[in-house]
Amino acid sequence: MLLQDKVAVVYGAGGSIGGAVARAFAREGARVHLAGRTRATLDKVADDIRAAGGTAETAVVDALDERAVDDFTGSVAARAGRIDVSFNAISVQDVQRPLAEISVEDFLRPIQVAARTQFLTIRAAVRHMTGSGVVLLFGGGGPQTQPGLGGFKVSLDTMEGIRRQWACEAGRQGVRVVTLITGGVPESIPDSYAGKDELEAELRGPTLLGRLATLADVGEVAAFVASDRARTMTSATVNVSCGAIVDH
C-alpha cells in the first residue's frame, strides 16, 4: 500500500473533500487523525474508515486557533512518534459578489482564513517532520478567474504563495509541499443547492475531458502525491481539473 504505517492528519476531515482524502489515505495504509469543528461529521468518516479495516482517530479542532492546532499536532506526534502527512481542506468562509459591491470585511475574510489556517497547520506539522514529510494544500486556482468571486480567488492565490514559501524553507528538512487544484467537484455541492445541475454544467463546460473530478479521484491523487512514489514532487501544483484549468 502507498501509505503503509504513515501518520496523517487531515483538517476539515468531516467535509466532502477532507473525508474523501482521509478515506483514501486510510485505504492505502495510513493511520489517519481527523480534525474538524463538528464531532458528528468526523465520527461518520472515522466509522467508515474503521468499517473498511482502517485506523482513524478524531479530534475537535478549530484550525483558526493557534493553541488548539499546536496541541493537536503535539498530541498526535507524542502518541505516534511523528507526523508524515498533513492535509488542510477547511472552508475559507467566502462571500462571492462583485468587488465593487462587497464589503472590506467580506472580501478579506477568505484571505485571512486561508492564510491563518494554512500557516498554523503547516507550521505545526513541519515541527514534527524530521527527514521527510508531506504537506498538501487544496484549492489553488491557476491564472484564470471570473467576475463575482469576491475574495475567494485571491484566497486561493494566497495559498499558492504560502505553498511556495513553505516548500522553499521546509525542503531543507526533507518536507515536500504540494497543492491539489480542481475545477470543481460536483459531489461536494450540497444537494440542497437550487442551481446544482446548472453549476455542474457550467463547471464541466471548459474541461478538456468533458467530465469533472470525483471525490474518489481527489482522494486517489492525494494518496499518490503523499506517498514516496512522488518523492521528487514539491513546490508544485497537481492539476486534477480534467483540463478546465490551463497550466501556466
From TrEMBL:
Q: What is its EC number?
A: 1.1.1.-
Q: SUPFAM superfamilies, alphabetically?
A: NAD(P)-binding Rossmann-fold domains
> What InterPro entries is this protein classified in?
NAD(P)-bd_dom_sf, SDR_fam
- Give the record's keywords alphabetically: Oxidoreductase
Task: Give GO terms: molecular function aspect only.
Answer: oxidoreductase activity
Q: Into which family does the record put it?
A: Belongs to the short-chain dehydrogenases/reductases (SDR) family.
Listed name of the protein:
SDR family NAD(P)-dependent oxidoreductase
Q: What class of enzyme is it?
A: oxidoreductase
